[in-house]
Design brief:
This protein is an alpha/beta fold. Helix content is about 55%, strand content about 15%. It has nine helices and five strands; from the N terminus they run E-H-E-H-H-H-E-H-E-H-H-H-E-H. The longest helix has 18 residues. The chain starts with a strand and ends in a 6-residue tail after the last helix. The structure holds shikimate-3-phosphate. Shikimate-3-phosphate binds next to loops.
């Protein structure tokens, strides 16, 4: 049994922060798919998109998904917003969809102290209009693959982590 928890959801919803919070409070580790991809090819996501294109990035996501399925257990995995499209998602672990409305997510990103950096490193956030279209296209996918949906609206990272820990009966330190 792998016992992994896979956090999915739109860019900026807080997947990485929540994964790390859960790890800090339990015996689980946290890994982030974008970090794995960057370390695999030793190139930043932004540069992969710019120099090799989105298609190449999606191939790397699929390769990472196969690696996670084979090698990782007892881990909270934060994913990129498009990772929902990999075929073996359910073989990696239980899927938690972190949901919030588009406006809430954008507000969360732009009000962050590091907003400029957060936007800069995400090629698909260049235009708010395009990002909104992407959100509308992704929403049904997230809902379809989710084992559990957690609405993150108005909640702190601590509250969301607690909710997930109790859902999966993770023992907190
Ligand atoms: C993407 C989301 C990003 C990153 C890449 C593509 C997407 O991750 O994987 O820029 O397709 O939604 P975050 O969801 O962590 O921002």
């Amino acid at each position: 049994m792998k016992n992994n928890i896979v956090l999915i959801g739109f860019m900026g919803v807080g997947k990485g922060q929540i994964a790390r919070k859960i790890a800090s409070r339990t015996s689980y580790y946290a890994v982030d798919c974008d970090d794995l991809i960057e370390s695999l090819v030793n190139i930043k996501i932004k540069k992969i998109f710019r120099d090799s294109g989105e298609e190449e990035f999606r191939k790397l996501e699929k390769r990472t998904a196969r690696w996670l399925e084979k090698n990782v257990s007892e881990t909270v995995i934060s994913t990129g917003g498009g990772f929902v499209n990999v075929k073996n998602l359910h073989k990696i672990g239980s899927i938690v969809y972190l949901h919030a409305d588009f406006d809430y997510i954008i507000q969360r990103i732009v009000s962050h102290p590091n907003a400029a950096r957060k936007i800069k490193k995400r090629p698909l956030l260049k235009s708010v209009k395009d990002a909104e279209k992407l959100y509308a296209a992704r929403l049904p996918l997230y809902k379809k693959v989710a084992d559990v949906t957690v609405d993150v609206t108005g909640k702190s990272v601590d509250e969301i982590a607690s909710e997930i820990c109790s859902l999966y009966q993770l023992i907190e330190n």
